[in-house]
Amino acid sequence: MNRAADLHGDGGLPLEFSDADQGRHILGVWAFLASDIVLFCCLFAVYAVYRTQVASGPSPAQLFSYPPVIIETVLLLTSSFTCSLALYEMRRGRSHSLIALILLTVLLGAGFVGMEVHDFASYVALGDTWHRSAFLSAFFTLVGTHGAHVSFGILWALTLVVQLLQRGVTPVTARKVYTFALYWHFLDLVWVFIFTFVYLTGKLG
Amino acid sequence: MMASLLHLLFPPSVRSPLELGSDVAIVLTSAAIVFVLTRYRKWGWLWREWLTSADHKKIGIMYLIAAIVMLFRGGVDALLMRTQLAIPNNQFLNANHYDAIFTTHGTIMVFFMAMPFIFALFNIAIPLMIGARDVAFPRLNAISFWLFAFAALLFNISFVVGGSPTAGWTAYPPLTELAFTPGIGQNYYLLALQISGIGTIATGVNFLVTILRMRAPGMTLMRMPLFVWSALVTSVLILFAFPALTVALALNMLDRLFGSTFFTLTSGGMPMMYVNLFWIWGHPEVYILVLPSFGIFSEVVATFSRKRLFGYAAMVASLVAITVLSYGVWVHHFFTMGAGPSVNVFFGVSTMLIAIPTGVKVFNWIFTMWRGRIRLEMPMLWALAFIPTFVLGGATGVMLAVVPGDYQFHNSYFLVAHFHNVLIGGVVFGLFSGMYYWWPKMFGYSLNPRMGRWAFWLFFLGFWVTFVPQYFLGLAGMTRRMYIYAHGFGWTGLNQISTVGAFAMGAGFVVLVYSVVWSMRYGERDVTGDPWDGRTLEWSLPSPVPEYNFAQIPTVTDRDAWWAMKQQAPAGAAAAPVHLRPIHVPKRSAQPFGIGLSFFVVGLGMVFSWWWIAGAGFLGVIFCILLGMFEYDLHEEMSVETIRETEAAMGRVGA
């Protein structure tokens, strides 16, 4: 699996698209992501309505602080970049650097989740739990749902590493890496909206 | 300790004769099933052939059986309600009991009867109609089924263990908040629906990809049978509607189990948030339920009129139009929220607009019949019954869409009559039509038509007798979910007529079940595979269909592909396949059953807030998902020899 020529099916398609079954899986993941977007849209809508409903609790501007959020953002955006590099290496048939880059992606993702958990814990330590206000309920649910998605993605990526070690880059493993990458970029995109819509406008407004 | 556990599991509300009777019936039925399976050594067969199968046809049959069992449960609920309402001041059911029963009736009929019935027919017919060997993701298909099946189990045990939900099938907060509905009944509702909802979204993904990617060569989108079109748009509706339900249920669950404040007014929460989310899912859901029936009618009316469907392109366009419009009407479920005239008028008008594409479809079915050679077989009978019934339901729907009128009709029996009119007249009649239509394809024999006619007339006339009086009850001021009423309102007579009708429908159901049992032994066998002189590809196959469906994938040259083949080669249309090659069939697996079971354990643990059980179930879920992620090849090869033998046994291969 070292020669690039082996990594393309008929008509020069990338390996993950080389047979119909893999193509179906990729379309299936797109369909799932479309559905997942609606889930996040609903959570964003709930947050949009509730962000002024602070009751006796803190307002967004009082609650948020920039430094941890900016570090989280950098970690997650970088992980998306390493994830793209992983795909690039996969297309060039370099399975070792592919695995290394997936592990790096996982590491950055884990850093993100760790920061977020720490962030949440510091809010809770101050007594700002979601019992206090509808705003906090909506905040923890929206951002927490994203964090749960990232955590699941980490587990997913680790299964890929094991399978790549076992089988190398084949149409099936290439498709699995590719669909994981779709999912990971999607989470990155959702985070961009969370960062803008929750943290930036929350702090400014 | 033991006493408090017993009190939790069996609170006073589940210790009335009705529940105790159900307990006895459940124990006896389960014992009988276990006895029969053990006596005839069928456990291994059940496990290998059914519970671990990923064959879309078997999954379809399991969905169908589950749907009919749930129709029985929901139907019994309905008869209990009608019995309670038959006379004024009736003491048959108390208020709490009545609340539990209308809640489970609605929830079961929508989520655990209609949805699986639809998925049964999708599973059985769609791959065959498009010339495919299975769905796109057979394993995921089995996972969807087991999520549904275990969710249905979880919901149904609430009746005898811990107490049923009592807040209506829509479960609006603040009533469903812990402060106003303590106890665990509502948790059953939230968890069971959440679990089955995950399975439903997976089914949406599955059929979308199946239809877009697995059609036989030559079957362009505009050559697809209308039922396939309806499944396609239904899948899209599921993908973009169900997440809203997921969120609505999740927020309510977080409030109840984890103390968040989404719907607590004092903390800034807003109960109307739930209502909006619920109906953003809920109205598309109405079309998720009814569009498949529209698809079935299009197949049935064309087949039994021996004509091509009239206005195919308009039929497709109206399906798509309904799909798009259905997302813009949800506020009509709560005009009385007081969103203001401009908002209400927008949603009133958008609701009325849906009547246009629906009307187009009704006219096209009628024009298809016009000058056709109509045969009044059972599927056609249900299709014919549908038209006037659904038109009345649609017309009263337009009445409800008139905003000032709605302030009068809202939450009255007028509304109850309207939605039963569209959901029974539209959805259930369609599903029965489809069931009779594809029954020989599923099982290899037809259902007895004489008994079928008895069931049909009892159910059809019973339907009108039940629900027409309810329109007038609504106009006379009777509100829904009312468990008792006094003398002197002028409601008694109408209620009694309605109850008589309901029991006629129940009798129709009993005849239907009897006809199934009878036909199993004596029903006419389908030896040709094409008992109705069908038009679409499923009728080109023998009945029941072999595991791999098509020994050789057909090439489609026209709409109504099978009809075209029969025209070209009238005698040997079911031509013997020439070039057989090995076929990949889905491997069977215990993983889907394991996922369903693990989710059941999670659900049960969360219902009772037994976190160690929920945690164990969650680990099971993760374990099963990881198993699936490490799977490399979900298919196994079936050799040419096996295929040739199977085909020969069905008389399909010459050499």
Describe this protein's structure.
The complex is a heterodimer of chains A (205) and B (655). With 205 residues, chain A is mainly alpha-helical. Chain A has one domain (20-204): Four Helix Bundle (Hemerythrin (Met), subunit A) (Up-down Bundle), CATH 1.20.120. Chain A is built from six helices and no strands. Chain A has helices at residues 20-50, 60-63, 66-91, 95-125, 134-167, 171-204. In chain A, helix 1 (20-50) runs antiparallel to helix 5 (134-167), helix 3 (66-91) runs antiparallel to helix 4 (95-125) and helix 3 (66-91) packs antiparallel against helix 6. Chain A is elongated, with a radius of gyration of 19 Å. Mean pLDDT of chain A is 92; it is low at 1-6. With 655 residues, chain B is mainly alpha-helical. Chain B has two domains: 12-41; 42-589 and 634-649, Up-down Bundle (Cytochrome C Oxidase, Chain A), CATH 1.20.210.10. Chain B is 67% helix and 1% strand. Chain B has 20 helices and two strands. Chain B has helices spanning 2-9, 17-39, 43-51, 56-85, 95-129, 138-157, 185-213, 226-258, 271-305, 312-325, 341-369, 378-401, 403-409, 413-443, 449-475, 492-522, 561-568, 591-607, 611-630, 640-649, and strands at 583-586, 635-638. A two-stranded antiparallel ribbon of chain B has the order 1-2. Chain B is globular. Chain B starts with a helix and ends in a 6-residue tail after the last helix. The model of chain B has no long low-confidence stretch (mean pLDDT 94). Classes of the chains: A mainly alpha (205), B mainly alpha (655). At the A-B interface, helix 1 and helix 5 of A face helix 7, helix 8, helix 9 and helix 19 of B.
